[in-house]
Amino acid sequence: MATATSTAVMHSRVEEFLSKPRQMFINNQFVNSASGKTFPTYDPATGEVLAKVAEGDREDIDRAVKAARKAFEGDAWAYMSPSQRGRLIWKLADLLEARAEEFAQLESLDNGKPLSIARVADVPLAIDLFRYMAGWATKIEGNTIPLSGGSKKVQFFAYTRREPVGVVGQIIPWNFPLLMAAWKLGPALATGCTVVLKPAEQTPLTALLLAELIAEAGFPEGVVNVVPGYGETAGAALAAHPDVDKVAFTGSTEVGKLILQAAAGNLKKVSLELGGKSPNIVFADAEMRSSVAGAASAIFFNQGQTCCAGSRLYVEKGMFDQVVEGVADQAKKIKIGPGFDATTSMGPLVSLEQFNRVCGYLESGLSEGAEAVVGGKKKDGPGYFVEPTVMVKTNPNMKVVREEIFGPVVVASPFSDIDQIVAEANNSEYGLAAGVWTSDISKAHRIANRLRAGTVWINCYNVFDAALPFGGYKQSGWGREMGHEALEMYTEVKAVCVGI
Question: 35 is in which domain, residue-wise?
Answer without folding.
Answer: 12-274+478-496
